[in-house]
Amino acid sequence: MNARAQSAASPRHNPAAIAERILPGERRRGRGAATNASGRFEIQSREDFDDGWTLDEAPEPLATEVTLERPKSIITRNDSPDISFDRSINPYRGCEHGCFYCFARPTHAYMGLSAGLDFESRLFAKEGAAALLERELAAARYTAAPIAFGTNTDPYQPIERQYKITRSLLETLQRVRHPLSIVTKSNLILRDLDLLEPMARDGLVKVFVSVTTLDRALARQMEPRAPTPQKRLEAIEALNDAGVPAGVMAAPVIPAINDEELETILTRAYSAGAREASYVVLRLPGELRDMFREWLQVHYPDRLKRAVSLMQSMREGKDYEAQWGRRMAGSGPYAWMIGRRFEMAARRLGYRETSRALRTDLFHKPTLETSDAAAQLSLF
Q1: Does 168 fall in a domain?
Q2: Preceding peptide of 252 cis, ω within 30°
Q3: Residue 165: CATH number of its domain
Q4: Does 126 fall in a domain?
Q5: What is the pTM for the complete model shown?
Q6: Cα separation of 201 and 245, whole Å?
Q7: Residue pair 212/224 in contact by the 8 Å Cβ criterion
Q8: What is the pLDDT of residues 349-364, one digit of tens each?
């Protein structure tokens, strides 16, 4: 039996089984995931379902819980040949935006939590992140290269308004003139223009704003707590007007859901000032293979079969392919078509064909002996 047949034959992917495990609407109101199954590393498996009993009163909306954690390091390294950076920072674990398709969802299993509703409601904020960053930048062997923000979870998700961890990291990077790139869905980034503008003048920062759809109703279904598409386009315009280069990331391209919008997104973003663009096709690692089907069952049951078939056509009949160079763009005729459409639209509109390089020669190491952050760190 080939991979496609095996996937189709899975009892979990039977439409009736999918419908059975979806939580009632009032239990997931305002959230992106349709279920909250146990993490894959748990000894005992837990999966909520509707047993037919109804409550006299509607349950309270699922509240967001934030746990402070003290990591031992803050810069994450990678050697993946198909991404443009070798280091990144994620100020938070989990993301309240609730994007159902987020490829970072499976990482919540490492915390003993679900990739479903837990990922968007049980969050972790990395306390003392700026002090850790300063210590790592001061290391004798450290050499400067752009640090990427927003590679797993959004650095400007709603809880950033309260915790301001992203801002504290930017303050450190600006002080030592270190380059960085940022990917976000949020116009909250405009709060930090006072830091980003001087960094941009020195060629130390660029931003990509993720625009998945221009349809407000679809955006609410896919990304229930992220700013509207119009707010994101306005953020692109405001950043570029302030001299901060801001491009657009059309990601993910989801078969039979938002794929027809690719050219329109690029056109609107170009009008807002974007001059760099990228795209990524839908990725379904780990638990996302189930979550994709569950989301379709809730919102577009008539498109479930077609969307899954097109998605698998990009992954050699499988739900996911992790191979470098193919995981972002996929393979096969459908993936090829998406790639050519992107290239043709980007060329016609006038997007840059090569990415803008950031400067690394301005970086100067922080002096920990005179750093307030280092003094606090030494207490632990």
Answers
A1: yes
A2: yes
A3: 3.20.20.70
A4: yes
A5: 0.88
A6: 10
A7: no
A8: 999 999 999 999 999 9
